[in-house]
Amino acid sequence: PQFKIEIITFFRKSSRGDFVFSADRLIRLVVEEGLNQLPYTECTVTTPTGHKYEGVKFEKGNCGVSIMRSGEAMEQGLRDCCRSIRIGKILIQSDEETQRAKVYYAKFPPDIYRRKVLLMYPILSTGNTVIEAVKVLVEHGVQPSVIILLSLFSTPHG
């Protein structure tokens, strides 16, 4: 889904504080929508006042992977929603002339092949970096069907 957010995020004269606030808010909205795509189970809890509350609980086996460095900006939004979630990292850089993506570093939870993956990359331009990241995840045993891309902005090529 696409979100609309106050124009202040894009307004040239907005203060740094306003921009950061709006960007963090947008990241949180995108992360929460990504979390909505993960499997959950319904559960009932009893509140301290003795009332029953019907809710949901995420199933175990989810993780985040940030494409460094811009993807790291989304990590706090994910941690704000899921304090104990495991987060992996991958560093991919594109050659300026050829636009070919090259992996320089990848560190994932050891059992990533059993997890659902929230792949965090805020600005999607050509798509080459994300394509390479998905290839690396697949090489580590992750099924493409369990990879959810979290991105804030995309160009027509992305």
Automatic annotation (TrEMBL):
The lineage of its organism: Eukaryota, Metazoa, Chordata, Craniata, Vertebrata. It is found in: Cytoplasm; Nucleus. It comes from Lophotis ruficrista. One of its GO terms (molecular function) is GTP binding. Coiled coil: none annotated. One of its GO terms (cellular component) is nucleus. Keywords: Cytoplasm, Glycosyltransferase, GTP-binding, Nucleotide-binding, Nucleus, Transferase. It comes from the Eukaryota. Its main location: cytoplasm. Belongs to the UPRTase family. Residues 13-158 form the Phosphoribosyltransferase domain. This is Uracil phosphoribosyltransferase homolog. The gene is Uprt.
